[in-house]
Amino acid sequence: MEQVKTNTTVATQATSEGIAQVGMGITLASAGVIGLWGITCFVSALAQNGVLAMAKGWFMAVGG
Fold first, then answer.
1. pLDDT at residue 64, rounded to an integer
2. Considering its fold, how many domains does the chain have in total?
3. Mean pLDDT over residues 33-51, rounded?
4. In terms of residue numbers, what domain contains 36?
5. Nearest residue to 54 via CA among 44, 64, 46
């Protein structure tokens, strides 16, 4: 009986580890996509407005 409990515990731990790894993978993939989207938006705004307009807009947003 003790052997069955040990095997079940090991299987449960392996399953929990696998679920945690999938969750971490989804989280990291989402962070990567969000980061790429942010970079794309920044490059697009820079191409449309130029460096000086971006700096002016940043100072206005921070300073009010």
1. 81
2. 1
3. 96
4. 25-64
5. 46
**In a 3-state reduction of DSSP, which class is residue 64?**
coil
Radius of gyration of the CA atoms of the chain, in A: 24
Q: Tell me, yes or no, whether 2 lies in a domain.
A: no
**Predicted pLDDT of residue 1:** 47
Are the C-beta atoms of 46 and 54 separated by less than 8 Å?
A: yes
Whole-number mean pLDDT of the chain? Answer: 88
Look at residue 12 in the predicted model and tell me its pLDDT. Answer: 83
Which residues neighbour 45 within 8 Å (Cβ) at sequence distance 6 or greater? 54
The band of 3, judged by pLDDT with boundaries at 50, 70 and 90, is low
d(CA 13, CA 6): 11
CA distances from 48 to 3, 10, 31, 43, 57 (A): 68, 57, 26, 9, 13
